[in-house]
């Protein structure tokens, strides 16, 4: 009898010593909130919040309730694929508001440091091929190639003169989360052969792929990249419908994709997806 009581006490104490479950998307899953164009808020299984290409306040497709930057909650990390305004967007304001580092092309971040827009701590530098763990062990960010451009349009706050500055080279990001789930955010890109290498090397669970055409992949080229080169488990189309030139649609992408093992999830701005 005494032995049974001791055993019960030990079990109870062990239960009390267990750490509380971490927050996350939906009960520890990966959660993505699409905010239009290429802007995503990613909530990791451990509860960290990563913003990618946060063009929100001037994005015609961002729902009104998300145009207030406070609506994003506490942001831990910001990733910017290139310096164009529809990706660079509100990244500086979010970095300052949350004291969160903004990681982007090395040339873009060097320009932000030189202009004294952000400190080196908030605009650290990395480059293609580099892998960082900015939120501690478990979350890895790898910068990969994208086929695009990256000019930084800037208005001098004193002279009011508009300038075009160095924005580095465009990139994509492989985002590996605590549970091993890998997201490939392609940024803006056209087709390039090494998409196959990226797919073979990283085997993404989720592909965030531009489909609008004109400035980025058309639905047909996006389908080819998905089916023949990258072969992800899941795909979410993005970067379409915000301006007249971005005519590509998810329906055209899915039709061009045809029969494939990739599961396509079509979102509307403001929709969430969990994995």
Structural class per helix/strand content? alpha/beta
Strand content: 15-25%
Q: Kindly, what is the distance between the CA atoms of the first and last residues, rounded to a whole number of angstroms?
A: 47 Å
- What would you call the shape? globular
Could you tell me the number of beta strands?
16
| Main β-sheet, spatial strand arrangement | 6-5-4-3-2-1-16
Regions with little confidence, pLDDT below 50 for 5+ residues: 1-23
- Radius of gyration from the alpha-carbon trace, in angstroms: 21 Å
Succession of helices and strands = HEEEEHHEHEEEEEEEHEHEHEE
Task: Report on this structure.
This protein is of the alpha/beta class. The protein contains seven helices and 16 strands. Helix 4 (106-114) links the parallel strand 5 (102-105) and strand 6 (125-126). Helix 6 (219-230) packs across helix 7. The longest helix has 15 residues, at 2-16. The protein is globular and about 55 Å long. Residues 1-23 have low confidence and may be disordered.
Entry summary:
The protein is α/β, with parallel strands linked by helices and 275 residues long.
Short descriptors:
globular, 7 helices, alpha/beta, disordered N terminus, 16 strands, single chain, 275 residues, seven-stranded mixed β-sheet
Blueprint (SSEs and pairs):
Layout: H1 2-16, E1 31-34, E2 40-43, E3 49-52, E4 77-79, H2 85-88, H3 91-98, E5 102-105, H4 106-114, E6 125-126, E7 131-132, E8 140-145, E9 152-155, E10 162-165, E11 171-176, E12 182-185, H5 195-202, E13 206-210, H6 219-230, E14 234-238, H7 250-257, E15 263-264, E16 272-274
